[in-house]
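EI: anyone free to look at a 415-residue chain?
SC: sure, send it
EI:
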Amino acid sequence: MRIARRHVIFLQGYDPRGRAAYYRMFRGELRKFGALYGLAPRIGRPEVSPDDLVASWTIDTEGEGWRTHTTYDFLRWEDLVQRDRNVPAWRTIPHALAIYGWLIVRGILFRFIKAHWRFAAFISYPYVALLAEILAAAGIGFAAHAALAALGLPGIVSAALAIAAFAATLAGLVVKGEPYTYMLYLMADTIFTYQFAHGRRPDWNERVARFASHLADVARTTDADELVVVGHSSGSFLGVEIVARALEIDPDLGRRHARIAFLTVGGNLPIVGFLPPARTFRDHLRRLAVEPSIDWIDCQSRKDVMNFFPFDPIAGHGLDVGTARRNPHVAIVRLRDLITPARYNLFRWQFFRVHFQFVMANDRANAYDFFMIVCGPLSLAARMAQPELALAIATGDEAARMAAWDALDAPAPAE
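SC: here you go
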């Protein structure tokens, strides 16, 4: 229950930002975390592995009656995302449109709608945005044709110039509007998940294998009391792959000194798992569902349109492991409870910002607190099993803290 040393392995989503941006965000949010609970956590500078794929820093946190040292590994694949984003729009758009059509024809989009209509609406958004840009450009083209015809230009000339105006306007809207629409980025994400599910991304497969080996090495050599693997957003399905492959490398992965917890937050497992070719991925889900040496916690929120809510990661994929099932424990997080009402109202419609709240500091003390999970004295499994005791340890007076620790330390009743 009591964690003096913790090792965290963090898996980002499909994000072109990398080590520097995430470290700055982590450092800033750590200060907010400390201010909320009256703590003064100390963070070290990042160090990188020889292949530059793992950035690590440490955090030392001390509270009333506890002290925790955390090693935090940030696994890097932003170079692969940036490579995808460098594909020109004239290739990205038709490719993404073909995949979206395939999702409709195969009935997968309707499975998304049934699982969580908000997510289905979100992944449909880029194509709605493209349609709006096409209609706007067509309006400019028609207006140009009418104006040129009124000036007496021959029909074929005015038509050609109108088509050129349409094409130029559409290209301008796509390129100049990208910082506001994120249309090409989301299309690239769709292409990536489709290719990954079909086994057509050897670069990503190689990176996943590298990180599975890293996890196995850490589990074998760490002196930590707890090893937490965190998968945020697309890091959730990549995390399933990494943990499952690490188990293949070392079947005793979760039976060594450090208890292993796998935390998925803002997860979107079905974008891979619902695709028919993703059989290996579903086999990995099945393996984790029955693995007794790993505690898998899946946190979901209704307000986050980029995760599936409510969704059972095992039964929702049509998997039945019977009474052998022990994972995951699904925990519902009310993001509204983490943030003050004034701040929540400022960004409640900023979907990316809401999505990132899972890995940012709270404004209000809550049993779900990413930085308490990373820096606090209580194991993830205990925190999620008895959230009221976790909150008492974080915010209660001395008597409440002692009573909470006594309750957590008490032996489990015999069955």
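EI: The radius of gyration is 24 Å.
SC: 👍
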